[in-house]
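Page 37, continued from 36.
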């Protein structure tokens, strides 16, 4: 089964269960690393009210979701190759993939890595202030606005602040 179809099937299989159990799906990926395949599922606790996100998931939460998904995937048997199933939190330095992630974390500090440099730099850190289809805007520590074209961005993660 193609990578996208695996991700779509996992999403369809998991979302009703997650909703019933008080979780939501942050991201799913099915990737090859070296000779091994990994099906990674990232979950969060669902907000009780819009915009009010509760604490992080713990190992018990991940185990509950992993058991359910493992049983379902064994029953459906959609993947012909061997793979490792991993269920976890997206982490404190979670990557931002979807538009809903960008909206949710506006105003938070992010680390941005680029495919190619802009002004001699390939990495930027700043407060995520605006997001459009074409670019994102950051405000750096000097309150200067940096606009970065989306096609040049390789990844964006929340900054870990201690």
């Amino acid at each position: 089964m193609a990578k996208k179809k695996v991700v779509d099937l996992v999403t369809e299989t998991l979302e009703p269960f997650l909703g019933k159990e008080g979780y939501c799906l942050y991201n799913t990926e099915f990737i090859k690393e070296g000779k091994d395949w990994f099906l990674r599922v990232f979950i969060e606790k669902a907000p009780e009210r819009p915009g009010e996100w509760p604490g992080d998931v713990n190992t018990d939460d991940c185990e509950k979701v992993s058991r359910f998904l493992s049983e379902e995937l064994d029953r459906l048997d959609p993947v012909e190759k061997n793979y490792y199933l991993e269920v976890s939190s997206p982490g404190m330095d979670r990557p931002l993939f979807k538009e809903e992630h960008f909206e949710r974390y506006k105003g938070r500090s992010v680390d941005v890595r680029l495919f190619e440099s802009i002004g001699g730099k390939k990495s930027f850190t700043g407060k995520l202030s605006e997001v459009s289809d074409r670019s994102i805007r950051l405000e750096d520590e000097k309150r200067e606005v940096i606009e970065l074209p989306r096609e040049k961005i390789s990844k964006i993660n929340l900054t870990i602040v201690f």
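The chain has two domains: 3-88, 99-158. Flag for discussion at group meeting. The CA atoms of residues 8 and 28 lie 9 Å apart.
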